[in-house]
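Progress report, Aim 2. The chain analyzed during this reporting quarter is listed below.
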Amino acid sequence: MGARYLSAVGLSLLVYDRLTHLDEEVADVWSDLRRNKWLKAMFLCGRLSAEAYMVYCAAVMGGFSNALDQKDCRRYIIIGPLLLKVSAINAEGVVICRLWSLWDDSRRVKCAIGAMAIIVVLTVVVATVLEVLQLPEFTIAADFLKSRQCLFNFPGQASILSMVVEASVFLAWDVFIVIIFTASTLGTPYQCSRDILVQFKRDGGRYFICLCSSVHVFLLYDFWQGFSGPSVLSLMPESSIELAKTWNIG
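Predicted structure tokens for the chain:
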């Protein structure tokens, strides 16, 4: 009960802080969005999708329901990733628009940005469809670590090949963005370090770093899980993966 209470309080504070500071973030990092309402709406949609994902995970997977069954687990494995990817696509859309505006004078760079964006979107769509069709059959509800949880059975590399490919594309996209941001920031000669940092902040560098740091945790996990062989793990973050791997699901 104490863990549930702390989870509810922590989630409420997190959601409140993120929503109350939304306009400050837009004004600080994406100042140009004030003149582009549809971009601001995209940014807001991505933020709200992230909040909806956290609330859904806490309500369904955080131990609030003692009657967790197979249908709940299979519903979670579909709805959870969909909300997360809607949030990611909206956030990446703002990044793409910002990068596009930085290189108005270079048609080649704009074509490269557009091509990478198309590859990322198509990969996300195809991977999502494959995950919705394949992953629910590997999810079960069972009692584990004194609570009712959803356990995901990884039968091997083939079952999560789409996740590994998607992670690889996102990793390539992030490296591409780093190169574009660096080229834009260092494009003007005779700049001191302070001017470079100010321009990097103006171009959305801080937002990009925060986005990458959170996403790369999942990317590394996908790579590790994809090549570690058959295993069983809990979808609840507070459960130990190593304990789940050694648990016999019968």
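The chain is about 70% helix and 5% strand. The CA atoms of residues 140 and 170 lie 29 Å apart. These observations will guide the mutagenesis work planned for the next reporting period.
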